[in-house]
Specification:
heterodimer; A: about 160 residues; alpha+beta; globular; B: about 120 residues; about 70% helix
Chain lengths: ~160, ~120
């Protein structure tokens, strides 16, 4: 294998009115994807999404155990997420809750995320199904995301207008 | 509840797979209802019902052309959803690009440990 070429961009769809589905293929076996996903030092290297750094990554990988990630943007804006592990099937499936600490009552509005790994010795497809507690919560996520992503949105305005015609 | 009427309705409108199919077809240009009936293999009353929902939320517009009624996509009504999906997708894509790098390093380390000398 040569190079680190990205295996494609994430695909996001809204399959029902209270779900979000994210998929992406990786050029690595699922054991390694699992490891990168569940090891704090490794999570710190990718969770930031190029928008600052991850200052905290805690993972207590057992059913009922909790996780918490905190990242800080270059402007000093702190974003925290936490949750609890519900189901752990090593290398195949991880079910956990995810609460965004930037909203009121994060735990009441937490989503249940099911990550599934599928593949062979070479490649892995990661699927994350985000189940929101209600359509209202999903719409609220979308509304808040729209505000945060306003700058992106402006840049995309023309592109969107064209693609939707 | 505090569900903003317009956006929430657009979300509802596109949550239905058949309605998404209709939007996909209309994304290619204006169509009369008969085209949609034959392209989707649905009965006309069903298509008309979906079109009515889509029109109510402003995602689809209609105009008369002689005896025909032509339906077309109104992209502006979908823009909030589209924008959000794009920015969400971008966050995850950037995360995953970083994850690619981490995985590549793990692979190299494993190969090194295995003594394959690659």
């Amino acid at each position: 294998m040569v190079g680190v070429a990205s295996s494609g961009t994430a695909t996001v769809t809204l399959p029902t009115e209270d779900q979000i589905l994210i998929t992406r293929e990786f050029d690595a076996p699922k054991e390694l994807v699992w490891k990168a996903w569940t090891t704090p030092e490794l999570v710190k290297q990718w969770w930031h999404a190029n928008r600052g750094e991850v200052t905290l990554a805690e993972i207590d990988l057992r059913v009922g155990g909790t996780w918490r990630y905190v990242s800080v943007t270059p402007e000093g804006f702190e974003v925290g997420f936490h949750g609890e592990y519900r189901k752990i099937e090593p290398y195949d499936r991880l079910v956990s809750t995810e609460a965004y600490e930037g909203i009121p009552n994060p735990d009441e509005n937490a989503t249940v995320n099911t990550m599934t790994l599928d593949g062979d010795n070479e490649r892995t497809t990661v699927t994350i199904l985000v189940q929101c507690p209600s359509p209202e919560v999903r719409d609220a996520m979308i509304d808040s995301g729209m505000e945060a992503g306003m700058q992106d949105a402006f840049d995309l305005m023309e592109q969107v207008a064209i693609s939707l015609r | 509840m505090a569900r903003a009427a317009t956006t929430a309705d657009a979300f509802n409108a596109v949550a239905e797979p058949r309605r998404r199919q209709i939007l996909d077809v209309l994304a290619g240009g204006e169509r009369p209802v008969n085209d949609l009936v034959s392209l989707l293999g649905l009965a006309q009353p069903q298509v008309s019902k979906h079109l009515r929902v889509l029109r109510e939320v402003g995602v689809v517009d209609v105009r008369k052309d002689g005896r025909q009624r032509l339906y077309r996509l109104n992209g502006h009504a979908l823009k909030p959803i589209h924008d959000w999906v794009q920015s969400y997708e971008q966050t995850w894509s950037e995360r995953f690009d970083q994850l690619d790098v981490v995985l590549q390093e793990l692979k190299e380390k494993e190969e090194g440990d295995g003594g394959s000398g690659k």
